[in-house]
């Protein structure tokens, strides 16, 4: 699913001149069949003895070496490197079903730079503008995308970062309870220390334009009668300057996000077996080879 | 480091449900659902040089990561299998 979702965005990676690789312990000919079935245009890599996986130290050792054919898989994840070959970001989740989505990976590769702040100069001084949107145009099973709350704080003012001083409200995004939405801790920009001229009190704040990113995915495929998921919740903040503090503010949001139908699994049902050419044969051969290797 | 195994799961009519609500035929803590609980190894650290990767591509041809990316930034995905 992650690989197919990456392919859907491959033009964006190409346009940004970011190379994409995906490595598994599959045999090369199994990857070739997968690549051809899904029109994968980026580079699929074969590590059938898990040599590369071991060299990175990410072999899943929770699996018994005799547990064929699962032994040999890595803890799935993604590593982003810059032009110099230095690792800048890593995406690994404790739930092996949760994978970084294309927008997260491309954003990381591009340094996730915010555009230059464009504050509305005619806004009333206490106006904090907030927009909430998904970074991506849909959700898919397992594939993580960021819900982005973008704040625009007028010049000369600030909002409290978390943790806020006692009695004040730090900027935050809260999602309503949802059975289907899998969420991960919010990613916050670095805050800045702020000291009040009068009292010398010091706390952490955000200025100007900044984003909170809340990684989400869905744990189930769309139902026929529900091809979308509602992501609802509330953003909250408290805006101040050195003289005046507004009352805490909040704003509800409700987004309807399409959920794409999953790529059928390679094994386990006839539809899936048909979707992945020779999947059963590859699986059997892989199992047998591993069993033979002991 | 040997991480603890994540075994929280409940049986439902549709299969085994893990703590994030993903439902699958296998019980969490077995086979391909061998999830870690707590910390687990994720390879070299942010700020480290990306190690060499030498293996074969889907075509069966020799592959060298740093040679292939030729000075481009890159995204490198480790996943479980394209087959299952």
Descriptive keywords:
heterodimer, A: 294 residues, alpha+beta, 2 domains, four-stranded mixed β-sheet, 7 helices, B: 84 residues, three-stranded antiparallel β-sheet, 1 helix, 8 strands, 31% strand, elongated
Give, in order, the helices and strands of chain A.
Answer: HHEHEHEEEHEEEEEEEEEEEEHH
Major beta sheet, strand line-up of chain B = 2-3-4
CATH topology of the largest domain in chain A: Immunoglobulin-like
Number of strands of chain A: 17
Distance between the termini of chain A: 30 Å
Helix fraction of chain A by DSSP (H/I, runs of at least 4): 10-25%
Description:
The complex is a heterodimer of chains A (294) and B (84). By secondary structure, chain A is of the alpha+beta class. Chain A has 2 domains: 2-113, Glutaredoxin, CATH 3.40.30.10; 129-260, Sandwich (Immunoglobulin-like). Helix content of chain A is 20%, strand content 32%. Chain A is built from 7 helices and 17 strands. In chain A, strands 5, 6, 8, 11 and 14 form a 5-stranded mixed beta sheet that branches. In chain A, strand 1, helix 3 (28-38) and strand 2 (43-46) form a beta-alpha-beta unit. Chain A is elongated and about 75 Å long. Chain B is mainly β. In chain B, strand 6 and strand 7 (62-64) form a beta hairpin. In chain B, the strands form 3 sheets. Chain B has a 3-stranded antiparallel beta sheet with strand order 2-3-4, with no helix packed on it. Chain B is built from 1 helix and 8 strands. Chain B has one domain (4-69). Classes of the chains: A alpha+beta (294), B mainly beta (84). Chains A and B meet through helix 1, strand 1, helix 3, strand 2 and helix 4 of A and strand 4, strand 5, strand 6, helix 1 and strand 8 of B.
């Amino acid at each position: 699913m992650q690989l197919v979702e990456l392919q859907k965005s491959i033009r964006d990676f190409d346009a940004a001149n970011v190379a994409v690789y995906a490595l598994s312990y599959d045999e090369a000919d199994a990857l070739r069949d997968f690549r051809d079935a899904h029109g994968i245009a980026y580079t699929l890599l074969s590590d059938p003895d898990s040599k590369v996986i071991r060299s990175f130290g990410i072999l899943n050792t929770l699996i018994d070496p005799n547990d064929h054919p699962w032994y040999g898989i890595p803890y799935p994840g993604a590593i982003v490197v810059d032009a110099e070959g230095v690792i800048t970001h890593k995406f690994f989740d404790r739930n092996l079903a949760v994978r970084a989505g294309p927008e997260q990976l491309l954003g990381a590769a591009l340094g996730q730079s915010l555009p230059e702040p464009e504050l509305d100069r005619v806004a009333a001084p206490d106006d904090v503008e907030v927009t909430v949107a998904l970074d991506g145009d849909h959700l898919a099973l397992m594939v993580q995308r960021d819900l982005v709350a973008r704040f625009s704080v007028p010049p000369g003012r600030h909002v409290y970062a978390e943790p806020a001083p006692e009695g004040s409200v730090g900027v935050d995004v809260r999602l309503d309870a949802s059975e289907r939405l899998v969420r991960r801790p919010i990613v916050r920009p670095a805050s800045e220390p702020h000291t009040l001229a009068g009292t010398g009190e010091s706390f952490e704040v955000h200025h100007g334009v900044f984003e909170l990113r809340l990684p989400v995915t869905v744990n189930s495929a769309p139902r026929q009668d529900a091809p979308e998921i509602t992501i609802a919740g509330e953003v909250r903040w408290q805006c101040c300057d050195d003289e005046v503090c507004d009352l805490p503010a909040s704003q509800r949001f409700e987004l309807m996000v399409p959920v794409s139908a999953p790529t059928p699994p390679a094994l386990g049902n006839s539809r899936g077996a048909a979707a992945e050419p020779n999947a059963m044969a590859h699986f059997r051969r892989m199992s047998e080879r591993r069993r033979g290797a002991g | 480091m040997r991480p603890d195994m994540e075994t929280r799961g409940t049986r439902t009519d549709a299969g085994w449900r893990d703590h994030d609500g993903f439902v699958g035929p296998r019980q969490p803590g077995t086979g391909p659902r061998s999830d870690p609980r707590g910390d687990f190894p994720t390879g070299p650290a942010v700020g480290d040089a990306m190690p060499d990767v030498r293996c074969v591509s889907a075509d069966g041809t020799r592959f060298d990561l740093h040679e292939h990316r030729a000075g481009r930034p890159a995204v490198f995905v480790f996943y479980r299998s394209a087959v299952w």
